[in-house]
Design brief:
Number of strands: 7
Radius of gyration: 30 Å
Order of helices and strands: HHEEHHHEEEHEHEHHHHHHHH
């Protein structure tokens, strides 16, 4: 028993060491080498292995009760379970309520109450609608009277709006391809083939296209936006191969500086990556556009007078490749770290406070960084990657440091990159879109569901309610009332700042 306990403790310690090392790899200096989604998958497996080892150790400790060793407290989510959840009470009581000593009746002196989170698997049910028909026996003029049939998004079809919403949220918010959903439904005896589900998705995309366009118009009126683009493979007709399309993302999040405009993101599909696409998408937008430095955005600057602000992290990544290999790169990274530590103290303050704080604390650091880069540029070959990294910063200094002039501007484009990540994950699960129209349908649905997430709104609840309103004749003149930020937030939670 002692040998078994020692072996179990060693295994727990070994897994803890691996887990700590893995976390340091993710959050430490090697952070940028690891794909965030892959990190989460590996972390889940490590934590599951650790929990299994701890369960075995606890069982051994219970068995060897003489050791007197104290159990480790299990890791639990902190805080009470949400108040809005239904409570199903069960009473675990003793059978004999008479005192074993004197035979008198026992009386309640208190109780222990515990709460555990339970789940009821998805329950399919059939909604049966009966519409009685009425006629009058007393006259021939009254005719037959009957209540009108309720309207659904898929007219004369099989699903309710709630089921259609479930399919779409699972596909575009939770990244579960339609054929996998069909397999899950089949296990419950529901035969819904992938083509049927795809038909529902396409119909909803048609209904929601005006909402995506309204959302885009809302973003065009913003004072500041983020923009990014990602590859969207599309099946080329008749070839069996894919062609390279692009999904452009335009995001707004004014919360870090106290802006009142609701956060939102819009995706637009285009067949290419040329500079004409942002002009077409953003129309007359003439505010600040924060981007990653891609030259394709220069055209909208020239035509619309848009102010371009660049992303500092993209400049930093060029030096990161030389970490621990080149002292100049290490020093530049150290200076970046100092800049971001100060910037963290200015978050959630007004644009005026951020401007003053940056001028006072960040501008000297930026000025010193520029002098340091200029001084050390001559140490490297003009055609080398280090010279390229330094020249990128010096040649785009005004755009990279525009945050010093405008307290509404962030240091980087992480906001829109976070909105691109779900698209990349969904694309990885689905490999490619079947057509240009399918890719645009993808963009329509993802725009509204990701905006729900930014607004801390349950995408399923919003989509179900919105489809029902649209099916019952909601006017296209009042699309703003359907925007996710007007919908109740997830119970018990506030939108993140």
């Amino acid at each position: 028993m002692e040998d078994a306990l020692a072996a179990a403790r060693d295994e727990v310690k070994r897994l803890n060491d691996i887990l700590d090392q893995f976390k340091r790899h993710r959050f430490g200096q090697s952070a940028e080498r690891l794909d965030p989604d892959q990190y989460q998958l590996v972390l889940e497996e490590l934590e599951a292995a650790l929990s299994r080892a701890e369960a075995g150790l606890e069982a051994l400790i219970d068995q060897a009760d003489a050791t007197g060793e104290t159990k480790r407290r299990r890791r639990n989510n902190r805080g009470a379970l949400p108040a809005h959840l239904e409570r199903i009470e069960q009473v675990v009581d003793i059978e004999d309520k008479q005192c074993a000593c004197c035979g008198n009746d026992l009386h309640v002196i208190g109780e222990y109450v515990t709460e555990r989170l339970d789940v009821v698997p998805t329950i399919f049910r059939v909604l049966v609608t009966r519409r009685p028909r009425y006629g009058c026996r007393g006259c021939d003029e009254g005719g037959v009277t009957q209540a009108p049939a309720p309207s659904f998004i898929v007219d004369q079809g099989l699903p309710t709006d709630a089921l259609v919403a479930q399919v779409i949220v699972a596909r575009y918010a939770d990244h579960l391809p339609l054929y996998r959903q069909a397999q899950i439904y089949a296990r419950q005896g529901i035969d819904l083939d992938r083509a049927t589900l795809a038909d529902w998705v396409g119909r909803v995309g048609w209904w929601l296209t005006p909402l995506r366009q309204h959302l885009l118009a809302e973003l065009r009126s913003s004072v500041k936006l983020f923009a990014d683009e990602t590859r969207m493979p599309v099946l080329a007709p008749g070839t069996g191969k894919t062609k390279s399309g692009q999904l452009w993302a335009y995001a707004r999040d004014d919360r870090p500086w106290g802006g009142l405009a609701p956060p939102a993101v819009v995706y637009m599909y285009a067949t290419g990556r040329g500079g004409m696409h942002p002009i077409d998408h953003l129309g007359d937008f003439a505010g600040v556009l924060q981007v990653d430095g891609y030259a394709g955005y220069n055209e909208i600057k020239r035509r619309n007078g848009v102010t371009l602000a660049f992303c500092l992290l993209h400049a930093r990544r060029k030096f990161y490749d030389f970490r621990e290999k080149e002292p100049v790169a290490d020093e530049v990274l150290r200076r970046f770290s100092a800049i971001y530590k100060i910037e963290a103290t200015l978050r959630d303050t007004s644009p005026e406070a951020r401007f003053e704080g940056r001028q006072l604390m960040l501008k000297p650091l930026f000025d010193n960084l520029r002098d340091y880069l200029s001084k050390n540029l001559g140490r490297f070959s003009a055609k080398g990657k280090m010279a390229e990294a330094i020249n990128y910063m010096l040649n785009h200094w005004q755009q990279l440091t525009y945050c010093l002039l405008d307290g509404r501007v962030e240091l980087d484009t992480n906001t829109v990159e976070r909105s691109i990540r779900p698209i990349a994950l969904s694309r990885r699960n689905s490999l490619f879109a079947a057509s240009d129209a399918g890719a645009d349908n993808w963009a329509v649905l993802a725009s509204l569901l990701e905006t729900c997430k930014l607004s801390d709104v349950d995408p399923l609840a919003w989509l179900t309610a919105t489809l029902t309103k649209l099916a019952n004749g909601h006017s296209n003149k009042d699309l703003d009332s359907l925007m996710p930020w007007h919908f109740p937030k997830i119970a018990g939670r506030n939108a993140p700042s």
